[in-house]
Write a structure and sequence with these properties.
Blueprint lengths: L1 H34 L5 H23 L5 H29 L4 H21 L2 H6 L14 H28 L4 H29 L7 H12 L1 H23 L9 H40 L11 E3 L2 E5 L9 E6 L5 E8 L5 E5 L10 E4 L2 E4 L25 E3 L2 E5 H6 L6
Antiparallel strand pairs: 1-2, 2-9, 3-4, 4-5, 6-7, 8-9
């Protein structure tokens, strides 16, 4: 039962992480558009197209090798980045330019909004829609506890995120335009920091751009602290909800008759209930991202390092000890005392996956084995065992090896070169 509960919490956490920020952004953008007097016909079509495109991409990912998700994400986020920069420029110069270019300044945000909504919703949807394909494994039934708990976690998190976004929209349309403009800007800047980090990481891995230590440190921070950005976004929405409650706390003043006063009181009570609904959902989302995630990750620890034979500057590991298809972890004491960990797993009859117990994205948190799968300790991503030993994504950093006289041989110089990753 504990394992089933953790499986449920896994999907609860993943969906909250995937959908919260995009849907909050859609909510605030639509609220600002509503305050400008805009209509939502184009936005509705953008949502329909995003869902249809996500279904198509999800189907291709599941059944073919046509879709390269990394390149697709790069293209989508690049276009989103350009659109949001133009949107922010228009948003903060409309006061100065509206008299000179009134039609353009009123039409451009409405033109950009459908594209922003499309990209924000399309980006996380393929992975979200593919989650149910993992609910039933080959040897399981839909009537199993495993399927039930996965479905509960998936649907509960979806309900939470949709309620959160809709409540925020209803809160913001009751606030002044200038307040909502500030909140939109802050949320877009939060998303921009994550998107820029992702784009730079994509280009850096493929050596399209030079290495910059400052930018790499920012990328590492954004990847390792993605939940911090989500909580910051929820706090921005909470600021809007609290602002609405403060405005509703002001004295009502004089009314022509008691009926109008009662009507205004009812409006304020409804607005306050919406603010409380958002704050409640935001607290639940933060609870999921912190306490629930801490509980779900509890119990998965790195296995102890196995012994090996050191001959000069060569490490020798007998093949019969690593031929079982399971993850094996080793630790080498570098010249300065740093423990450099590396992992080995047999991929097939002729090849091994060998790499550092660390990756470029998540650092040296390491990997563990669960149900025959290799999992990243930090981000809980399941590795494709066949790609271990190759660069890219959350894969272990590749480590060279050779097979000699029934032993796997690894050069200590290669480990010495990588010891900085474990400091």
């Amino acid at each position: 039962m504990t394992f089933c509960l953790k499986i449920m919490l896994k999907y609860l956490i993943e969906v909250v992480q995937e959908l919260t920020l995009p849907l909050l952004l859609v909510a605030v953008l639509c609220a600002l558009h509503r305050l400008r007097g805009g209509t939502f016909i184009a936005v509705r079509w953008a949502l329909v197209l995003a869902f249809a495109a996500a279904l198509a991409v999800g189907y291709l990912k599941l059944n073919t090798r046509v879709v390269n998700q990394e390149y697709l994400n790069f293209a989508t986020t690049s276009l989103w980045l350009m659109a949001v920069l133009v949107y922010l420029a228009v948003l903060w110069t409309e006061g100065m330019l509206s008299s000179r270019l009134p039609y353009l300044m009123s039409a451009l945000p409405a033109i950009l909004l459908p594209w922003l909504v499309f990209t924000l919703t399309f980006y996380p949807l393929p992975n979200f829609l593919l989650h149910p394909t993992d609910f039933v494994l080959a040897d399981q039934s839909i009537y199993s506890n495993d399927f039930l708990f996965k479905s509960i976690g998936y649907l509960a998190s979806l309900t939470l995120v949709l309620t959160l976004a809709y409540a925020l929209y209803l809160v913001l349309v009751r606030l002044p335009y200038r307040t909502v403009r500030v909140l939109v800007t802050v949320l877009l800047l939060i998303e921009l920091s994550l998107i820029v980090s992702e784009l730079y990481s994509f280009l850096l891995v493929r050596r399209f751009v030079p290495m910059n230590r400052t930018l790499f440190a920012l990328i590492k921070f954004s990847f390792n602290n993605a939940d911090f950005f989500l909580i910051a976004a929820l706090a921005v929405g909470a600021a809007g909800a609290l602002r609405l409650m403060i405005l509703n706390g002001a004295p009502l003043g004089e009314f022509a008759n008691p009926a109008l006063r009662r009507r205004q009181l009812a409006i304020q009570k409804r607005a306050n209930r919406l603010a409380v609904l958002y704050l409640t959902c935001a607290v639940l989302a933060v609870f999921v991202l912190t306490m629930v995630q801490s509980y779900a990750n509890r119990g998965f620890t790195l296995s102890a390092a196995e012994p090996f034979e050191l001959k000069g500057d060569l490490i020798e590991i007998p093949l019969e000890r690593i031929n079982d298809g399971h993850l094996h972890r080793f630790s080498y004491a570098a010249s300065d005392g740093t423990e450099v960990r590396f992992i080995v797993i047999r991929k097939n009859a002729v090849a091994f996956g060998v790499g550092l117990d660390a990756c470029e994205i998540c650092g040296n948190t390491g990997y563990y084995e669960r149900d025959g799968q290799v999992i990243c300790m930090l981000c809980d991503v399941v590795m494709n065992i066949n790609t271990i030993g190759y660069k890219g994504g959350c894969n272990p950093i590749p480590l060279g090896y050779s097979i000699e006289e029934g032993n796997m041989v690894i050069k200590t110089v290669d480990l010495e070169r990588e010891k900085k990753r474990f400091k």
